[in-house]
């Protein structure tokens, strides 16, 4: 009897001690071949259960999948609103190819406090990772604003994945899987698009701040404050960029700052709205309501340390929901009933934010599904609002000045307008100068000289020189449409797109393609010409791509003719589906390269083609150094400018291989 009892106890003990996690039930394994190429949305393959209190070990999770009632996502991205429950998801991947593969499982939604990944192999080995908004950024497998988990698949291996989610914010789980290379492509595009958005908002913030210092209208400073809090800092938190860029080792700061930025965003709406719509004059009673709501948002900020994160986050969602409709009603009343024209821009701009914001809030509350529209509508609406409100501020200044200056003489009005215009031109000049390189890169074996001569105070040309790797230099030269403030802003947009492009583009054709994709459709339906080159001093190679820009010239003291290099390529902004072929040319010691915009041809026109005259001029001076050639071109420009101002901007860049 004792032996039988001992045997039973040993069997039970062995079963508990060596219990292995069970696989995912009612799930068809996903063949690896089906996820090759684009990232694969797992919402059609997920089963899940909810648990409170939460569980944390793989054995508890696998046992729960066998015993608890399960639900299937059925192709809909899981979205549970603001919940205090923990959710566990399960899916299975089978490597049906005969190669070793590395895959990345990732969640695109960044406001999750705790994300647990378990990968259960057929061998019984379990790999795991815990990350989330309340964990240091270094816990994440990849530098990505969402959450990612890398695993290796052996040939013919089947791996079961468990993913546990818990958060004090709203919970949506856009769970994806991709090959490592496709994941990096996705994150590169994601970073580029985020960079373009924050670049536009940042440029508009700086521009409006400069305008405030010129006109001293408090509407501008309130608008800049609103942009900095709502369109930049709150979006940093909403898009999961605070730990990526600023606080990688301060998860509690990242966690607690979200609600603070949320209510600061709501707070800054009130002074901006009051001044923008001139409520003190147009609607004094509504102004009192706005001031009351402003005090309410201050009270909420003061309560943040004493009330739970979840409660205050839900309060912010309800507050923003009600405020959106109230502000829309007020802007309609002021714009169309009181007939205050600047408020129309506010109405249309705020309408775009409300559409995007409501879609986002309702997604957070669990009423709307998670899709491309609800994930990005708030950020897109905010970008549109930034542009519309900028026009509205300009219109508001015009209206207010007109009302104040009715009793003044027309000559005095014209004088003030000319002064303001001159200041804006100077501002645009400073803005454009900030986009041009202040110091030329120094590279052993390469001499560089540049010349920039705008036809007016603010020109439409742009160039940049960037050291790329240890032995390469990248150069971009472009002719931007227009002059003045629009040209300066467009050049700034081009600069942002170019700098973002250099993070992943290592060929001139790819540089132009990426810039074109970034700007086409977002560039006020205008076009620009550009030429990109890479000079590799180690291999002595010149790589060239062209987007409708004038050719570059290559020559040396032994040349019998100037080599004209101009690969084919359409203008940037013509279409997103454009590719830019490249040409590769050998370089030798003593070779000189001249890049320029078409304004330089006008200087050499003397009854004949300016291009032919310039080529003949270069042939005569082919043996001179770059410094001497630069001096000759500079002297030629100044002599021609004595006859009258140039009709077009002139930019040129000279290189000499030493």
UniProtKB/TrEMBL annotation:
What are the protein's UniProt keywords? Hydrolase, Membrane, Signal, Transmembrane, Transmembrane helix
Alphabetized GO MF terms: phosphatase activity
Enumerate the transmembrane spans.
195-215, 222-247, 259-277, 289-312, 318-335, 347-365, 377-394
Matching InterPro entries: 7TMR_DISM_rcpt_extracell_dom1, 7TMR_DISM_rcpt_extracell_dom2, Bact_Sigma-Reg, PPM-type-like_dom_sf, PPM-type_phosphatase-like_dom
Q: Where is the PPM-type phosphatase domain?
A: 443-657
**Span of the signal peptide:** 1-19
Record Gene3D superfamilies: 2.60.40.2380, PPM-type phosphatase domain
Keyword set includes Transmembrane helix: yes
Q: Which Pfam families match?
A: 7TMR-DISM_7TM, 7TMR-DISMED2, SpoIIE
Protein name per Swiss-Prot or TrEMBL: Serine/threonine protein phosphatase
